[in-house]
């Protein structure tokens, strides 16, 4: 069933065409935007330093700053003062970014199916694919609670995905934790 089209649109410049796929690729199709959103969603990273050091892809600080500014300007992230430190800011997902969960789940499932991936990094994609829309909805509710309402959940979908990642990482051949 199709969802009604929201009247509220993101504040992005018009694209080369009015095609929704093209416009989405123009907004999110660079090397880093989806990775940053992934790290905020699945890694819980909300500070610049966490995003810089927590991503296994190794983004440069100037690129991270540029992409964060782009995502804030596009309405996918908010930039808020960190109450614990006056010189820090936190980045939080907006509703539009939270609704990318099914897209990221589909990208992860496709990558797990068609590409050589690391088992510990693939397990979350497999769980999200197996859990399907009901799991995605629960995860989006957790993200809303954390990013939109400031009431994080400690034992939901993200905890389940993180635990599966840690189990898979400890089961790697030759891993000293095994």
Question: Could you please describe the fold and organization of this structure?
Answer:
It is built from eight helices and two strands. By secondary structure, the chain is mostly helical.
Secondary-structure topology with pairs:
Blueprint: H1 20-28, H2 33-43, H3 48-54, H4 61-73, E1 77-81, E2 89-93, H5 95-98, H6 101-114, H7 119-148, H8 157-170
Antiparallel strand pairs: 1-2
Helix pairs in contact: 6-7, 7-8
Question: Gist?
Answer:
It contains 8 helices and 2 strands.
Q: Which short descriptors sum up this protein?
A:
8 helices; two-stranded antiparallel sheet; 2 strands; globular; mainly alpha; 178 residues
Sketch the major β-sheet: 2 strands, antiparallel
Strands, count: 2
Spatial gap, N to C terminus: 46 Å
* Helical amount: 55-70%
Q: Outline the low-pLDDT stretches.
A: none
Question: What is the overall silhouette?
Answer: globular
Provide the spatial order of strands within the biggest beta sheet: 1-2
Q: Which H/E pattern describes the elements?
A: HHHHEEHHHH
The helix count comes to 8
Rg over C-alpha atoms, rounded to the nearest angstrom: 17 Å
Percent of residues in β-strands: 5-15%
What do the pLDDT scores average to? 89
Secondary-structure content class: mainly alpha
């Amino acid at each position: 069933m199709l969802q009604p089209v929201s009247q509220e649109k993101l504040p992005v410049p018009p694209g080369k065409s009015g095609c929704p796929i093209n416009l989405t690729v123009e907004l999110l199709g660079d090397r880093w935007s989806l990775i940053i959103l992934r790290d905020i969603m699945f890694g819980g990273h909300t500070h610049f330093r966490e995003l810089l050091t927590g991503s296994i892809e190794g983004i440069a600080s100037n690129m991270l700053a540029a992409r964060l500014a782009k995502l804030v300007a596009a309405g996918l992230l908010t930039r808020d003062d960190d109450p614990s430190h006056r010189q820090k800011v936190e980045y939080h997902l907006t509703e539009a970014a939270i609704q990318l969960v099914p897209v990221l789940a589909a990208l992860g499932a496709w990558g797990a199916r068609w590409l050589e991936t690391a088992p510990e990094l693939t397990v979350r994609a497999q769980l999200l694919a197996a859990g399907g829309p009901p799991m995605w909805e629960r995860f989006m509710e957790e993200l809303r609670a954390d990013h939109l309402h400031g009431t994080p959940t400690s034992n939901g979908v993200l905890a389940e995905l993180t635990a599966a990642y840690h189990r898979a990482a400890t089961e790697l051949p030759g891993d000293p934790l095994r």
